[in-house]
Amino acid sequence: MGFIVIAAARDTKLAWLAGGLAAAAVFGLGLCVPSVTERTENFLLNRVQRASAPGVNDIVLIDIDQASEARLGAWPWAHSVHASLVERLRAAQAKVITFTSPLEGSLVEKSASDSGDDALVQAIRAHGNVVLPVDVQLDGAASQTETSPPFAWGSWAKASEQSLSDAVPAWHPQGPSPALINAARLLGHTASRTGRDGVERSDLAMVNVEGHPLASLAVASATLALTAGELPQLQNRALFIGRTQPVSVDDRGVVIPRYIANGGTHTLPHYPYWQVLAGSILPQAFKDKVVFIGFGPDVGLSQRKTPAGTLSQNQIVASVSASLLSGTEISRPHWTLTVQALVTLIAFVVAAFAAVSTSLAIGATVTALLTALLLIAEIGIANSSGVLLSLALPVVALVVGMAVLITTRVMLGRRGGEASSTTTLESLRMLGLTFQGQGQLDLAFETFRRCPLDDSTQELLYRLGLDFERRRQLSKATAVYKHIAAANPDYRDLTQRLERLRNRPHITQPVMTGTALPADPPPRPAAKPEPPAPVQRTNSSGRTLGRYEIERELGKGAMGVVYLGRDPKINRVVAIKAIPLAEEFDDEDLAEARARFFREAEMAGRLNHPGIVTVYDAGEDSGLAYIAMEYLRGQHLSHYAEPEHLLPTATVLSLVARVADALNYAHRQNVVHRDIKPANIMFNAEADELKITDFGIARLTDVSRTKTGIVLGTPSFMSPEQLEGRPLDGRSDLFALGVTLYQLLSGQLPFRADSMTRLMQKIANDEHAPVRSIRPELPESIEVILNRVLAKSADDRYQTGAELAAALRTCLQTAAA
Are the CB atoms for 314 and 296 separated by under 8 Å? Predict the structure, then answer.
């Protein structure tokens, strides 16, 4: 230990490793996070216990349910009723009959001869293989009531003298009557064992009742089904019930079964008590079967939580018995503790070395993979072999240990003034050089800014500033030099270069190719500059926007101007949307707006769908942020939203379905448009080409303030959640598409008002006018589609664009037929 401390003090990496291993040892012992370990263990055990249900071919349930109480009267029933049922099951040749509900609650017919009780005793003896329940309580839990008949355990012939572990707690019995005890072949206790979360995951195979072992109902039933009535034996963590292989139990006599869920693949057959009593069920249903009789799920008595859900006492006992009969119970041998310790140590050492020797991302990835592997291995091994390795501690040690390592590295990195490890730092520098070599200088600057300003980084930034100067991007060169000066104002000729740049006019030159990430905004002069002049139709004078030559203006909108441009490098005609961010946003919001603009433009550029306009490039020039995109011919659908230009209904349904398909693709890429409306959908009727435009633009609405008060986005098409400023997903786009469909069909908006406030109130609260009140000739199914897509709650709408497209095409086919 002394060597580790000394070495750790000299070697930072070894310090991380030593600290991580120490944390793993602590968590491996479970001293600090027992509750986390227990929850993880329960999580694994729950999935194992319900992943593979035991065989149910030999099990039948008879439910004391509400229907039976309606016909036979309120519970409890007379013993003569149970006697009749036992006789009917004996005639059907049922192999074993187990009552899981206490019979002492039944009414004994008090006649001169106690005929009801005698009849039940005689029926039980006649069958010969009946198991009766015994209620037991832990020592000191409660005293025996006066009405509980005494147990004569010493005179009970079926009680065996076998030793029990000292860990098995002592219990006190309660009921049934001595006559029923002597009539039954075996008895079984009804005690249960739940975890701290209230879920029952195990069965108390044996309990100590006044010095005698008493098996559970499930164990007694399984033993009677496998033997001629021999008692189950518990010896050295092994339970012998007549199988070739004994059942593995722990020191407290606990067995871990699998449970059968309601409605699962292996659901147990259920029959109402009254139907069996009336003879409505064929005798073949019970022949050679183990029959369990008890309260059904609909009665609400003896309901308990299990890994398979909430089950009745009858279902739980039957599930455990089925697990024992089929040999599918789960065991925890002693050697699993050794495996647990070794896996904890090995897995954490591997993750620790990965975290120390590589980047934090790789270390975290390795840890996540190991954690997933351990979880899968735990469940897989338990399902295939029935052995539970208890790998919760390795999982907790991995996750918590990795968190300790990451925290240690971050803290040590901050103390040393480092942003990351040496390997990560070199990777960042190489990435920045790659961007610089490709001409993506803005990306290179953003990458270098993540590195500490040591001598190497200052040299890289200085060369980047020279590249900006060669490209005549003087404001960006100034930003780079100022970044260097923040750490070393005397670096080389930095002072002279900054002075020279302040005295030189900034000349508009093409910006870099590729998608740009924003740099820090250039320093603003004391006097507010004149806003940039709009780009005129001056191709002859060589005016450019970035690297693009401007041909002419195509149109204007609330968010800027669209130009027809040309990429001189590949002679490609493009449409360029220019947005004067500096004019629209206050100084404190400008940097955020610029960053969001480029980030969303980059996301839009990744979309590749025939129904979405292709984005080629994004950049900034002379205060204008711009996006270069595919040049489209045709008209916006807003032209066809006018009453005199409405398209045929079939055409509208087909076009909107295609838009829904394109939105479905974008939403699967985690891109939400936020401003779907006819003006942002281009349609070329001659080529039958449809494209959604302006992806990524509406995201600017999240920036808090604009100078001119322009509302980015169109309120008439906004969903209620968008108007309220709540988080959005693709269902908001579908609402806007529903407004678009309504307008294309009717020539008017579904929500109209004289003021913005009233309009927002209508969208949030009022129902739209039925579209068939405007155009009665429309199919009724269109009304159904609009009612759903324009629902106020996103949960009530179509959940995907694919669902909406399918509904529209079905409507189209129905209308055509």
Answer: yes
